Amino acid sequence: MLEIKNLCAAVENKEILKGINLNVKQGEVHAIMGRNGSGKSTLANLIAGKNNYSVTSGEVYYKEKNIAAISPEDRALNGIFLSFQYPVVIPGVNTTYFLKEALNAKRRNREEEEINAADFMRLIKEKLKEVDLDETYLKRSVNDGFSGGEKKRNEILQMLILEPELAVLDETDSGLDIDALKTIAHGINQYRREDRAIILITHYQRLLKYAVPDYVHVLMNGQIVKSGGKELALELEEKGYSWLEK
Amino acid sequence: MNYLQRQFHALLDHCLDERKEIRSLRKTAFDRFNQLGFPTKKWEEWQFTDFSEIRKNEYRLAWGKDLPKIPDKIPGLIPDTYSIIIINGHYQPQLTKLPTGVSVKSHEDFSQIDGDEYSLNGNQNPFLALNTALMNSEISLIVEPDSIIEKPIQIIHLTTALSDQFMNHPRLVFQIGRNSQATLVEHYIGETKIPYFVNPVTQVSIDENASLNYIRILEEDIFGCHTATTNYILKNDARLNTTSFSSGAKLFRHDIKLDFAGDGGEAVFNGLCLTEDQQHHDQHVIVDHQQNFCQSRQLFKYILAEKSSGVFNGKVVVRKNTKQTDADQSNRNLLLSPSALMNANPQLEILSDDVKCSHGSSTGELDDDAIFYLQTRGIDSETAKSLLIHGFANEIIEKVKPISIQDYIHNQFTDWLS
Ligand SMILES: Nc1ncnc2c1ncn2[C@@H]1O[C@H](COP(=O)(O)OP(=O)(O)OP(=O)(O)O)[C@@H](O)[C@H]1O
Ligand SMILES: [Mg+2]
Fold this sequence. Notes:
The complex is a heterodimer.
Chain A: E1 2-11, E2 14-24, E3 29-33, H1 40-48, E4 54-62, E5 65-66, H2 72-77, E6 80-83, E7 90-94, H3 95-109, H4 117-131, H5 136-139, E8 141-142, H6 148-162, E9 166-170, H7 178-191, E10 197-201, H8 205-210, E11 215-220, E12 223-228, H9 231-239
Chain B: H1 3-14, H2 20-36, H3 52-56, E1 60-61, E2 82-87, E3 90-91, E4 102-106, H4 126-134, E5 137-143, E6 153-160, E7 166-168, E8 170-176, E9 181-191, E10 196-198, E11 201-206, E12 211-219, E13 224-234, E14 239-246, E15 251-260, E16 266-275, E17 280-289, E18 295-304, E19 309-318, E20 325-335, E21 341-350, E22 355-365, H5 368-375, H6 381-397, H7 403-417
Parallel strand pairs in B: 1-7, 2-6, 5-8, 6-9, 7-10, 8-11, 9-12, 10-13, 11-13, 12-14, 13-15, 14-16, 15-17, 16-18, 17-19, 18-20, 19-21, 20-22
Antiparallel strand pairs in B: 2-3, 4-5
Helix pairs in contact in B: 2-4, 5-6, 6-7
The structure holds adenosine-5'-triphosphate and magnesium ion.
Residues 40-41, 85, 170-171 of chain A line the site of magnesium ion (MG).
């Protein structure tokens, strides 16, 4: 579903990604771990189509197509979703309106009719329950004044509503209390399916306990220096990262 | 002799039957204007605005014969409102619809109006002096005490079908009697391709415990220059809620002054300016807290596109020995193009200790991170930008009441965006 080949990227002449190789197939869950500043968010943003990096070499294939020239919105419409490490506040834009716009953009792209108000409310109420948010958030501007945990739930809410095929979750578990962590993990498991894939960026084993990955990769200095099964996360928790340094 | 002198003499000849107090008021005012002249870059309060367009264009005063055929459909009319229609400076009594409790006087009754409201009191604003000298279109609207006027009263100044360059100096007096409540809409619309100049002065007084919801909509044609002066006087416990929505005019300058003349007054200013092309919008606001327990809130927003420019100059004055003043002033500006320009200068002048004051100003561009966020949700970048601009404006628009006026402004805003 996603194939990254020798991806190198820089910002302001600073090399951040130095040859990433990653292959994610349908039905798989990949965890990416690594120190602060190792390039995890950069990788996530590049998959979603952020254009303020210069890709110096390498390719990203999604559904067997090189997506270098595809805009972020077209990637989203084709099933890529990014849950932001730092969800952005959109002042003055009502959350319900935003969710409906996003969903309808997808439906229009599939040449389906726009969702009617009643069906939309039904859908949204059902999904709100999954992430344990109440309806008052819908009336507020997107992420405006939301607490850290509420923002993360709002990201998962969007994932559940938009039903992407590839979800990249960038530290969706950071800054969450233990109940919220379970809620988020529940959301992820709810979403998990044979025909979908997930990339989980995280610092902690605790999320992986609830949302169990098939593969774990360690990103260090812009490269994947080690890959393994779910036990690798435990090993990292015990030993830290220094043993992987060359 | 410049064009203004010629027009002034023509006006005096035309209105020979005017009361002599008014005539002498006109003369004094015209002398004042001649002393002051048009503002120049050297005048601190006027430095960012170029008035040469008004100085150079030879406008003439509108007369009775300039009244065109009344359009079948008056543009800008908001449903479910009472209305007062003025076309090219001429009041149309036959189109006026007003409820009981509200009365209106126009030019014809002008001789009966008390001269006090027209005195200059040392004011150094040349456009106020010019208006007083040349006022050719007057409306005085009085809401009687203890009247609750449910529907808004919309006053439309329409400029349309001009034959040559002309000017109007409307004088508006609004008096809201004790314990009364009303909504007024002062609405300027231009539909012409010929340069024109509108220079209104509006005096608003709100009596004890009365409340006024006041909306000013500026949709002058791009060929129009509009300089306005609005003075508010609030008595004890009077409440004022204002919204200004300005999208029109090549040049717009507005001098707003509010005096709390009694204790316990409350004033809210919300403003949204939209500029594009080479438009220039300049607003100066002075809120004078000279009494106790008064509260004022200001939020002025600008959205500037293309090569347009804006000026916001707000001043809150809190006088010595006043008690429990609560004042807040905020100015937020969004630049949609690298050639757009904004000058902002919020000021506080606080001479009392018993105050709660805040002020701030910021000017920025659309947030790239927010655009990217929306794009990752499948929203294309143009729609994303428009959503963000909408979001920025919404803070002002969604507060407008009643909903009929909010809808009108919202539609005009949406048209502007597209
Ligand atoms: N726009 C930018 N300008 C300059 N440097 C940048 C920019 N974006 C990212 N970087 C740098 O790239 C490196 C990788 O950043 P990135 O956000 O990808 O790290 P991360 O692995 O997600 O870290 P964390 O675990 O703290 O979230 C950092 O050193 C960061 O400072
Ligand atoms: Mg990160």
